[in-house]
């Protein structure tokens, strides 16, 4: 019996038999397994359990080469004005600059008026003012300070260069005559005097005598005074002018 079987065994029969058994067992294996073609076929809980924890961050790599500069972008809108900052500390003193060239001489100005303090009345220049006395307390000689010169004379004037002009505009000479004056050609409203002379003009003289014998005028560098015989209640007013020689 076995000899008959052995006679029928051959390499081809054995391979065929093994293939049949493998095919039968493979079919059974395929019947209990599934082919996975997408992660959607796996439950999310299973997928999450399959994910591992994130590893540690690796060391930073070397910087790459700098790329080319990009094109300039459009200008942005102007910003608002910021608050004023605190004042800065004073800077260091700068070096002295080079001295500049001397400027051109200016034009000559007009003479000042009045003249400088401490100076004297220039030649040919005139000072004017007013004089007055009123209601003498008693009859007698009234010593009248006619003027205090704002600008001094270079020298006092002698009595022959001091002149009294009455209300008529006439001078009383040494002979007690009323004559037109050759050196006092102004008026009480516009007093004048020739160089080197003082002219006393009268606008009003009451209860007083102004003859040459009774009148005495003294002219110093800083002013002048005159003596006038007057009755009680006598009074007088006028102007004066003095011109430097």
Brief summary:
With 245 residues, the protein is of the alpha+beta class.
Describe the structure.
The protein has 245 residues and is an alpha+beta fold. It has helices at residues 2-8, 11-32, 44-50; strands at residues 126-133, 140-148, 162-165, 171-172, 178-179, 197-208, 216-219, 223-243. The strands form two sheets. Strands 1, 2, 3, 6, 7 and 8 form a six-stranded mixed sheet that branches. It has a two-stranded antiparallel ribbon with strand order 4-5. The longest helix has 22 residues, at 11-32. The protein is rod-shaped, with a radius of gyration of 68 Å.
Provide the descriptors you would attach to this structure in a database record:
245 residues; single chain; two-stranded antiparallel sheet; disordered N terminus; 8 strands; alpha+beta; 3 helices; rod-shaped; six-stranded mixed sheet
Q: SSE layout and pairings?
A:
Blueprint: H1 2-8, H2 11-32, H3 44-50, E1 126-133, E2 140-148, E3 162-165, E4 171-172, E5 178-179, E6 197-208, E7 216-219, E8 223-243
Parallel strand pairs: 3-6
Antiparallel strand pairs: 1-8, 2-8, 4-5, 6-8, 7-8
């Amino acid at each position: 019996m076995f000899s008959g079987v052995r006679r029928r065994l051959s390499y081809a029969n054995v391979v065929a038999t093994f293939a049949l058994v493998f095919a039968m067992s493979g079919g059974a294996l395929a019947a209990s397994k599934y082919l996975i073609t997408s992660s959607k076929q796996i439950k999310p809980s299973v997928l999450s359990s399959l994910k591992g924890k994130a590893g540690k961050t690796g060391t930073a790599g070397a910087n790459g080469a700098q790329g080319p500069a990009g094109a300039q972008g459009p200008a942005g809108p102007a910003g608002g004005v910021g608050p004023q900052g605190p004042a800065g500390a004073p800077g260091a003193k700068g070096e002295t600059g080079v001295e500049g060239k001397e400027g051109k001489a200016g034009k000559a100005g007009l003479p000042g008026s009045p003249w400088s303090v401490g100076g004297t009345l220039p030649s040919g220049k005139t000072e004017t003012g007013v004089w007055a006395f009123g209601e003498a307390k008693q009859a007698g000689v009234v010593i009248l300070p006619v003027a205090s010169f704002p600008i001094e004379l270079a020298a006092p004037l002698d009595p022959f260069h001091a002149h009294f002009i009455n209300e008529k505009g006439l001078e009383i000479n040494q002979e007690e005559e009323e004559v037109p004056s050759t050196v006092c050609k102004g008026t009480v409203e516009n007093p004048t005097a020739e160089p080197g002379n003082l002219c006393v003009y009268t606008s009003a003289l009451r209860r007083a005598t102004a003859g040459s014998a009774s009148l005495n005028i003294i002219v110093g560098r800083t002013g002048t005074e005159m003596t006038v015989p007057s009755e009680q209640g006598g009074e007088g007013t006028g102007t004066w002018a003095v011109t430097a020689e």
